[in-house]
Design goal:
Largest sheet: 8 strands, mixed
Radius of gyration: 27 Å
Shape: elongated
Number of strands: 16
CATH superfamily of the largest domain: Bira Bifunctional Protein, Domain 2
Distance between the termini: 49 Å
Mean pLDDT: 92
């Protein structure tokens, strides 16, 4: 027997309706916010992620699935959604069209990391990316969209944290102050933090090592170093959130784990899925498009892991209704009646009614048991008498009541 690779998971027939529920809610939110779906390749040139995500990140340094194809090109399975959509924006000249370009995607992603609750090596992400607007109301709208999505899923026990990590102007001043603070403690920090000290000291604040987190507690806060433009932008974002009744906390230690972020960053977190409780995170990345060779374009977005959302919903008691059951099961008593049942089922499907019939040669009693197991709302038994009369009794499984209906009227009756 060949087993599933470590860090991956099958979605079984009994659970697929839960995934469909989350994906349907994502599409509902996308429609409300005028976001158009995009689909990018599962793999891209490795350089895209090295330049876009950042060569100081754990993703690029430790977690990417990278291989050489038959043409000798370095190819990587996408570890996150933003870089591929940014490449698509540049390559297809979307900057020359109507702005802003508002997009969403539901995509598989791949990271080689230690599998844990809600975090797999193949995972799925719902993401939003908006290109072309630099205004703070765009930041607020993207956060509203994330909040609306989580609300539609029925998730209640969740907290929004926001921060601003500034722009190139104020980041330079902050980096200098941060390095002055960290340098005396550098020998006590982990190897990864020491390697980030010169290249990108801000990344050190994202370290999960306890000894590093302890040192970082007293580090200077970037919001104290924001330039006037970034400070004004952040204040306006907060005003938009407050005006719409969105509760949030300013967390000066949020820097996000990717190098492309600037100004607004945010995370929706929960304590119900373990220590790493971020279920949705994102922010502004005004320099990414230019760094990938495109025209300078402001942008903002977020990503939410579907596996982690499903785990959170399960842990907080969110019930997802299974609407995948057929409307009617047609039970045939013999070969001739089974043929008629099959014929009626096909007609019902053609008019939009979900119908099922026996394919296993079950007895009539077994067929009724099967209909109950799959949750059919109605069952109709067809035998010799029904074939002669052209009429059958529809049994409503919820209360056992029956009503006689002509074969040709079953669709009309079920659609009432």
């Amino acid at each position: 027997m060949i087993n599933i690779p470590k860090g991956t998971k099958d979605v079984l027939p009994a659970n697929s309706y839960k995934w469909q529920f989350v994906e349907d809610k994502a599409r509902e939110v996308a429609k409300l916010f005028n976001l158009k779906e995009v689909r990018t390749p599962v793999f891209e040139h490795t350089e895209l992620f090295a330049r876009g995500v950042g060569d100081t990140t754990d993703i690029v340094n430790k977690e990417m699935y990278t291989f050489e194809d038959k043409g000798g090109r370095s190819i990587t399975l996408k570890p996150e959604g933003t870089a591929g959509v940014a490449r698509m924006y540049i390559e297809n000249g979307l900057h020359s069209g109507v702005l802003p370009v508002k997009t969403f995607y539901i995509t598989p992603c791949f990271r080689y990391e230690r599998p844990q609750a809600g975090r797999l090596r193949e995972f799925h992400q719902f993401g939003i990316e908006v290109f072309g607007s630099k205004t703070p109301d765009t930041d607020a709208e993207v956060i509203f969209a994330a909040s609306s999505f989580l609300n539609k899923l029925g998730i209640k026990e969740i907290k929004l944290n926001i921060n601003s990590i500034g722009c190139k102007t104020c980041r330079a001043q902050y980096n200098a102050a941060l390095k002055n603070y960290l340098e005396p403690n550098l020998s006590d920090m982990c190897e990864t933090c020491r390697s980030r000290f010169d290249k990108n000291p801000l990344r050190i604040l994202d370290c999960k090592e306890e000894k590093c987190k302890k040192i970082n507690e007293d580090a200077p806060k970037i919001i104290d170093y924001l330039c006037d433009e970034c400070s004004d932008h952040f204040e306006k974002v907060k005003k938009y959130l407050t005006a719409q009744g969105v509760e949030y906390s300013v967390n000066p230690y949020i820097v996000r784990g990717l190098d492309y972020y600037s100004k607004t960053v945010f995370e929706f977190v929960s304590t119900k899925i373990g220590s790493q409780g971020t279920v949705c995170g994102g922010g502004r990345y005004d320099g990414l498009i230019e760094s990938l060779g495109g025209v300078s374009t402001p942008a903002i977005g977020f990503g939410a892991g579907i596996e982690r959302l499903l785990l959170l919903m399960e842990n907080t008691g969110v019930e997802i209704e299974d609407n995948s059951a057929p409307t009617i099961y047609l039970a045939g008593m013999d070969d001739e009646s089974r043929t008629k049942a099959f014929d009626i089922a096909m007609q019902l499907r053609a008019c939009g009614i979900a119908a099922e019939v026996d394919h296993m040669g079950r007895s009539i009693k077994a067929q009724f048991k099967y209909a109950d197991k799959i949750g059919a709302k109605y069952v109709a038994a067809i035998g010799g008498n029904e074939l002669l009369s052209g009429e059958c009794n529809l049994k409503k499984m919820s209360d056992g009541t029956t009503v006689p209906v002509k074969f040709e009227d079953i669709c009309t009756y079920l659609k009432k």
